Amino acid sequence: MPRGRSSRNQRRMTSPESEPSDDGLPALSDEVLMQVFYSTGDCAAIQELHRRYQAKLAGVFLSQGVRREEVEDLVNETWLRVLRTRDRPGARFQPGDGRSFAAWLTTIASNLAKDRWRKSRGGKVVSLEDLGPGENADGDRRRRPDEHPRDVAPSVESQL
């Protein structure tokens, strides 16, 4: 039976919580690890989450068209943003808001990929007041909506 896209995405970002951690202790849930990190600043909790999700995050970036040579940087930037949430309570992972840690982490990663894409386009900002009549932000002359080819045809015929 073919698998739907949602089940594949869900499987991709599901944590292997049932696996014991490297130190042989029973695995703690992602939510508990984040609570430990927020309350104590214990980076071992983040290291465990990093172990669980590093490859999965790389897959998220690759599926969004990020070049392979940029993936490692974006994975690291994702974890830096997770670390910074400790000092920003409004940005923290909230287990009670109905989203899993995997979904929250995927949102951070997706936003980073979008930011990278926007920056790669040049990100040139153009004021509408600076544009001439009929120009768009790229500097191209575009036909006004009222300049339909049928309206232009009589003037062309008169010049023949």
Helix content: 55-70%
CATH class of the domain at 17-120: Mainly Alpha
User: Which architecture of the domain at 17-120 per CATH?
Assistant: Orthogonal Bundle
Count of beta strands? 0
CATH superfamily caption of the domain at 17-120: RNA polymerase sigma factor, region 2, helix turn helix motif
Provide an overview of this structure.
- There is one protein chain.
- By secondary structure, the protein is mainly alpha-helical.
- It has a domain at 17-120: Rna Polymerase Sigma Factor, Chain: A (Orthogonal Bundle), CATH 1.10.1740.
- The chain has six helices and no strands.
- Helix 3 (43-63) packs antiparallel against helix 4 (68-84), helix 3 (43-63) packs across helix 5 (101-120) and helix 4 (68-84) packs across helix 5.
- The protein is elongated.
- The model is unreliable at 1-12 (pLDDT under 50).
SSE topology sketch:
Blueprint: H1 5-12, H2 30-40, H3 43-63, H4 68-84, H5 101-120, H6 149-159
Helix pairs in contact: 2-3, 3-4, 3-5, 4-5
Q: What attributes characterize this protein structure?
A:
single chain, mainly alpha, 6 helices, elongated, Rna Polymerase Sigma Factor, Chain: A, 160 residues, 0% strand
